[in-house]
Specification:
With about 425 residues, the chain is α/β, with parallel strands linked by helices. It contains ten helices and 19 strands.
């Protein structure tokens, strides 16, 4: 269970926050080409006002003193049912399929208590790192919901005041070859409330008829999709092509999240360009998972990989395609190390994809939960819970670099700790 939390309420104003450019109104004043510092009024735990000019009558405030600040973080793609199992798995054959096989062997140990302990450890870690929204995929191997699905339902309820937890049914496409299974699983996912339908779509199991039926039924039932799709370095992103062909004949009113899409980076540039142009016209969000893609793609024992496996982040963003970056697996057969920290995922993507202006532009990829929603509205702080991650750094050019951080959640200041939260400000002094 979680440790008890001792927190300190913030005063009425947070002053001198350096917020990212994407989070600010388009007419926000600049200084030397960068956004001026922001002042945030907090009322009843929510953001009441955002202004570049501090009112003269402000009495109580915390001076953030120009430190870099983000809204609470989004962990858009995780696997909490698999997490923290690496120590008991042993050797794993390099590559995605080897990891899948090794993970399958561990499932006999997934009792209720085992799942509960590991998932809650992951939630505690994510919370301490500033995550307020987490979406996890859950392996679903037959027509009935697995035990992990029910454990996550219960934990979503017990954690609802700290983390918004969503769960995706990760179903192998081979199981959906029988349309009755598709209908049965969709009904269970819909009944969950916080459930999303997912699927693993890869050349080893590709079935165009099963995939098209899934898309059409999800559209009919207004169920969002979150897909593992083309997680391989293939010449043809056949899953993505099938998805786009189908969407051009079906009215899909929800959102479809496409995770991995590694094959966009390995196919011919002209094909990738045309597919991105088509994605731009559809309710699709792309998610890059740099840890597992770098570890598992083009993987062989005695050869250094020549291909990165990262999807085309820059090209997608240049088309205003909603693009996110997430952690994926933590300490399991797919990734032996790491923790639930979107900042670390973004840092790795920055190296791998050579991203620039990371704080002002790319931090949106780990903060904007609207990219996961059916209605793609602009992100607006006003009226939202006063949740911020404050970094011990004032330099946008070096961020993220070993970022120590403190959290403000619902108008309370807490110090991140993997086991508990404790007071940070006792006298409302500057953090400088």
């Amino acid at each position: 269970m979680m440790s008890s939390s001792i927190t300190t309420p913030v005063p009425q104003w947070l002053t001198n926050l350096r917020l990212p450019e994407w989070l600010l109104p388009t007419d926000w004043p600049l200084l030397n080409g960068l956004p001026q510092l922001a002042h945030v009024e907090v009322s009843a735990g929510a953001v009441a006002k955002l202004t570049p000019i501090l009112p003269s009558d402000v009495i109580e405030s915390i001076n953030i003193d120009g430190a870099l600040c983000l809204p609470s973080l989004v962990e858009a793609h995780a696997h909490l049912d698999k997490t923290f199992t690496r120590h008991r798995i042993g050797d794993v054959t390099p590559g995605l399929l080897g990891a899948i096989e090794a993970m399958q062997q561990d499932k006999s140990k997934w009792s209720h208590d085992d799942l509960w302990q590991r998932v809650e450890q992951a939630l505690q870690q994510a919370y301490a790192n500033g995550v307020a929204y987490l979406r996890t995929h859950v392996d679903w191997d037959n027509e009935q919901a697995p035990a992990a699905w029910h454990v996550l339902q219960a934990l979503a309820k017990s954690w609802q005041h700290k983390i918004h937890l969503e769960q995706v049914a990760l179903v192998p496409l081979t199981l959906l070859a029988d349309s009755n299974n598709t209908d049965t699983i969709l009904q269970q996912v819909s009944a969950t409330g916080n459930g999303i339908m997912g699927c693993f779509i890869h050349s080893v199991n590709f079935d165009a008829d099963a995939f098209e039926y899934l898309i059409k039924q999800a559209a009919k039932l207004h169920i969002d999709l979150d897909l593992h799709i083309d997680e391989e370095l293939a010449d043809q992103p056949q899953g993505l092509i099938c998805l786009l062909d189908c969407l051009e004949t079906v009215s899909f009113r929800g959102r479809i999240v496409c995770g991995h899409v590694c094959a966009l980076s390995s196919c011919e540039t002209s094909l990738a360009t045309s597919l991105l142009d088509r994605i731009q016209q559809q309710p699709i969000t792309l998610i890059s998972l740099p840890t597992t893609n770098l570890l598992l793609q083009d993987a062989e024992v005695d050869r250094t990989p020549k291909l990165l496996g990262l999807t085309l982040l820059k090209e997608a963003k240049s088309r205003d395609i909603p693009t996110m970056i997430a952690t994926d697996n933590v300490q399991d057969a797919f990734c032996s190390f790491g923790e639930y920290d979107p900042i670390e995922a973004l840092r790795l993507a920055t190296y791998g994809a050579q991203l620039s202006h990371v704080f002002d532009r790319w931090s949106q990829s780990i903060c904007n939960a609207n990219y996961l929603s059916s209605e793609l509205n602009a992100f607006n702080l006003i009226g939202k819970s006063a949740d911020f991650v404050v970094f011990d750094n004032k330099d946008v050019w070096s961020w993220p670099s070993g970022e120590e951080r403190l959290l403000i959640r619902g108008g309370y200041v807490i110090k991140p700790n993997k086991q508990a939260v404790v007071p940070l400000f006792n006298d409302h002094k500057d953090i400088s």
